[in-house]
Amino acid sequence: MSKTSAGNFFEDFRVGQVLAHGTPRTITDGDASLYVALTGSRFPLHCAAPAAHAVGFERNTVDDLLAFHVAFGKTVADVSFNAVANLGYADVRFLATVYPGDTLRSQSTVIGLKENSSGRNGNVYVRSDTYNQFGDRVLTWARWVMVHKRDPAAPAPEAVVPALPAVVPVAELPLPAELDGTQYDVSLTGSPHLWEDYAPGERIDHVNGMTVDSADHTLATKLYQNNARLHFEERLMADSRFGTRLMYGGHVISIARALSFNGLANALRIAAINAGTHCNPAFAGDTFYAWTEVLERWELPGRADLGALRLRTIAVRNAATEDIADAKVEREGRSVYRDEVVLDLDYTVLMPRRGRPRRRAVRASRMRRAPSRGG
Amino acid sequence: MSKTSAGNFFEDFRVGQVLAHGTPRTITDGDASLYVALTGSRFPLHCAAPAAHAVGFERNTVDDLLAFHVAFGKTVADVSFNAVANLGYADVRFLATVYPGDTLRSQSTVIGLKENSSGRNGNVYVRSDTYNQFGDRVLTWARWVMVHKRDPAAPAPEAVVPALPAVVPVAELPLPAELDGTQYDVSLTGSPHLWEDYAPGERIDHVNGMTVDSADHTLATKLYQNNARLHFEERLMADSRFGTRLMYGGHVISIARALSFNGLANALRIAAINAGTHCNPAFAGDTFYAWTEVLERWELPGRADLGALRLRTIAVRNAATEDIADAKVEREGRSVYRDEVVLDLDYTVLMPRRGRPRRRAVRASRMRRAPSRGG
Amino acid sequence: MSKTSAGNFFEDFRVGQVLAHGTPRTITDGDASLYVALTGSRFPLHCAAPAAHAVGFERNTVDDLLAFHVAFGKTVADVSFNAVANLGYADVRFLATVYPGDTLRSQSTVIGLKENSSGRNGNVYVRSDTYNQFGDRVLTWARWVMVHKRDPAAPAPEAVVPALPAVVPVAELPLPAELDGTQYDVSLTGSPHLWEDYAPGERIDHVNGMTVDSADHTLATKLYQNNARLHFEERLMADSRFGTRLMYGGHVISIARALSFNGLANALRIAAINAGTHCNPAFAGDTFYAWTEVLERWELPGRADLGALRLRTIAVRNAATEDIADAKVEREGRSVYRDEVVLDLDYTVLMPRRGRPRRRAVRASRMRRAPSRGG
Question: What is the pTM of this model?
């Protein structure tokens, strides 16, 4: 039996199989600082302990996407080490607040398998779940990846394609019980725009762009302990059709979310990712820009303090968003993504609602100093 | 009303206007570690909890410049997003110790405006103040930037140019009450040189140099949540007269201060920056060197344990300091900075004084383990 | 007396001389996060507080190599600032657990001197010791470096070459008293292989590779406050025979150890480094691969829960391990390292033993939340 793992190939998966992923990870203030350094993110609940405390949290929370990337990274060695492509995400739900100091572990269940017509690979569908040190499930998501077969002659399994929701419905959106939107103060971000101000159909071009260097994306991907070879081995990738290391698609999601602060600063939290597609590969040296379309505006049952916005954020590389009216283009009779488009993300955020008296968010009397101080 | 901000243009500013900057930030041990990784800084109060405790602090303190960059970063979106150039700093005072766990927020007041003769831009003078979670003011500084006009036809405001001190006088230097210089042990740094050993007129060439790569300076600038486009968008900057992203000038200050450890190791703390000029732009790939001239040596009222040194540190790029006698050169009858010079920083540091019995700085009995340990 | 230090030259060293190195350093969660981002390391005791707690530690521990690099970095300014080459390590012992929050200081004693026949440099042998804030010695090692003479005419000292052990014998291996291997759960890493499964003579090719960019290796080296000029000054090194900055050899050790997770995931801890050689220089842009040979398998006196494996890990640059049968090659009648080989590391790890009932490692009842949480 080999001591090393070359990952699972398509014929190694069985529907119903449970994969317990290795190396649980305690997320710390150090990870949070690195996430800011890698993305420039400025969303206040993750940056400022008193601000998070003022709206009901114990202290500043771990960025939703940092938690997701750490949780996701654990699944790579077992699920997508031999992936040809990461095809999509669905039904990603951020179920519980993650704080610095919490420890995450992940497991995945195979929920579908379908060999491709070439006979050389197949699609694997998994449901992944992440738990904290209390055993609470903090994240759940489905994804499907195209995985190489070890042996092209291996027989095809019975095709099972799971039904996945196109959108996480309002009734199933995880709402943080601790968050009290009435305590939110827009001066925290400097943006006056709240839930009521966004209208379905509206498009927001996020102004700023960001160039990502090779050390940036590989530091991020190593931080998440995602060990997919195509992100790390220049020697291997120089001979591939890409000519260089591929950027972890999740880093593009993080950059797009960070850029979206300019226009969506009060989108305090991601509740769900409905669907995500990495439309084209991204590489070191690319400059990313993003725009967001507001798809839906939802009231939340039992919550007058918070509303939800379903958003579609498109990230492009090396092109100005204002020059691009649509992420897709007609080509040979088919609607396909434009070459510049690297991300099409359909997700749902939580934003405080207007129309109630607000108090100052940062009150010294409630919290004199962040607990990370250790005092 | 646009959801996004394209920043303020020259005609958006009014003398007396107060700008409350977004996203307060809790500085953590993670930020401190990143600061060391980004600069190689070795000043002991920021690196070693027991060393800081032994001279009177609760624990290790946040590097003065890390606090400054975080505080400064917040002002960029409102003050200098549309800056042509950052023209200078004056009267920067480090008023109170910042500890890991403290949360900083910044606000700025417009103190001067002067349109330039071209009519296309103008100088904006601001006084910025930064507060911690107790409401204590921890930093204050003045700076002036040249900012684009949105509309060249907009009328010029009445010119107001504030009087700014050329130097923070001894009587106004902030002195940390908690610091007891008599407890300082030079073995902490390995350098025996104390306040008495430095003489006005002396020049110190700092030996080591440091090359900064693109990921280095952009990680630093993102860590500070400074979102000025010219540091981040290679696509934009490739077409500019610079040809590539500009390095945040503050990173050059940090590199120069870190290099100055070799020669000024016991300059425990920066009390003030009297004046700062980014003389020429700096870019990824540049190797920086620095020298320091001792301008003045001051006794401090009521403090026999500490003295102040007014220093002038010059940083150069891609040139040896020993080949450069003066930062300026005569050109067409004018004294201008040499092309190699990127920073001219006039600042005041605090250094323990000699001539009293010293005890061992690191005493296990006072602090058995750093509080960040969480025990 | 110059304020700056140009480091010690060969003629500055005396056998018996003690060098107390500057700037003690508190290692924090931030350093641990950076270490993960810089290496992708996944060994569980350093990543997961509950996992470390379940086997007896207070919380997650500092990676052995992170502690080593910080401890080593302190010695550079005094020992190897003027090194021609770092010739080797011997008798490196990891004596005590280092936790985040602990503060390390290092000192070195000169144990040997031998001028080289050229008369232009000589070998300096030092024993370095690192202590925590309790005064406990946590690390000890010997190394020898070739150091330039300031003055080639300076007389040669009497040659003293210390006897150094080729291997740290079983009886002297430091064994962590707090670690209870019977509590170890292999599901933490996902690898089922324990001490009994490894046989002397076995070779493990570690599958994954890792490309290191310039910002990666310089961030790591600055984090360790190692200020050797040849890692940092591109301007200086462009004119050297290497043509660019040299990578700190310790970073190659860390990358090799991180890659070895695939095949040695349950090698929880490094007890000793018997010998280490940086066979060839490494540079930014290199892609590293590694294989490990199992040299010896040792039972440990009084420990039925743990065994030791003496390993030899070879790291190569820009070459596939499977194409290389041996690290050395015959050249002109001599056995020399192949050009691709950058590291030959002989070290001893601790691994849990099989054959006893195991309980779940992560038990919420023992530790509800990591102490770094600050709660």
Answer: 0.95
